[in-house]
What we know:
Layout: H1 5-18, H2 20-26, H3 34-37, H4 43-74, H5 81-89, E1 97-98, E2 103-104, H6 111-117, E3 122-130, E4 133-144, E5 147-149, H7 153-166, E6 172-176, E7 181-191, H8 209-220, E8 227-228, H9 229-237, E9 242-253, E10 255-256, E11 260-261, E12 265-266, E13 270-271, E14 278-279, E15 286-289
Parallel strand pairs: 4-6, 7-14, 7-15
Antiparallel strand pairs: 1-2, 3-4, 4-5, 7-9, 8-13, 9-12, 10-11
Helix pairs in contact: 1-4
Amino acid sequence: xxxxxxxxxxxxxxxxxxxxxxxxxxxxxxxxxxxxxxxxxxxxxxxxxxxxxxxxxxxxxxxxxxxxxxxxxxxxxxxxxxxxxxxxxxxxxxxxxxxxxxxxxxxxxxxxxxxxxxxxxxxxxxxxxxxxxxxxxxxxxxxxxxxxxxxxxxxxxxxxxxxxxxxxxxxxxxxxxxxxxxxxxxxxxxxxxxxxxxxxxxxxxxxxxxxxxxxxxxxxxxxxxxxxxxxxxxxxxxxxxxxxxxxxxxxxxxxxxxxxxxxxxxxxxxxxxxxxxxxxxxxxxxxxxxxxxx
Length: 294
């Protein structure tokens, strides 16, 4: 990583004022710094400013080159899981794909049109063994008004066709474009009546801080990230007005292909969502109580 201009200049000026020949020539003392002995408008100070800027520019260029080289190595056309994730995110809806050059044919499309066509905003790729076969699961979703949602049927159909053209021969890829896993929380929340009301709303503004904290927690989970029940509890306990809580049960259910949503299943410690993300559509499982320990 490139050093700052001031760091580069300090390294040069420190060496300059500590050089014996320089000290004798200028009559410098060991107890004073370069800044103490040279004016800000002096030739020497301006000279080192220019040298530091040149060195910083060179180091910054090397940083960019190093990153570009690392990206080229990382993104070389080898069909690993990371490559497949990048492939999914590169999908352009409405554009033709050249499987030989492995790129979309943009023609005269503008940058804005190309950006708008990249409708896959979230992607996660995992590899599992099913019997003697290897299955690659590619979970995808898009963004709508700040929420993670599945892509439309038309986009899903086009995306599946794109993956079939672009995938490595022999790979078995399953595209997962599901509605969210539904999270059901049954908690008893011990609340502070100075801050919250019995329905969980904040006295000052009528908002529901526990619900908001849970929504933020879920939104901050990485796509296809692991939901930890313990971390969820910690997020709730961090809310002003929440004194304690009792975890009665945390459950989730998800889309079963050809069936729809299955039955709720308990989450003991953690869970990775089948769809890649969670949503809560029923908050009735959260009870707010006044608790007086005996």
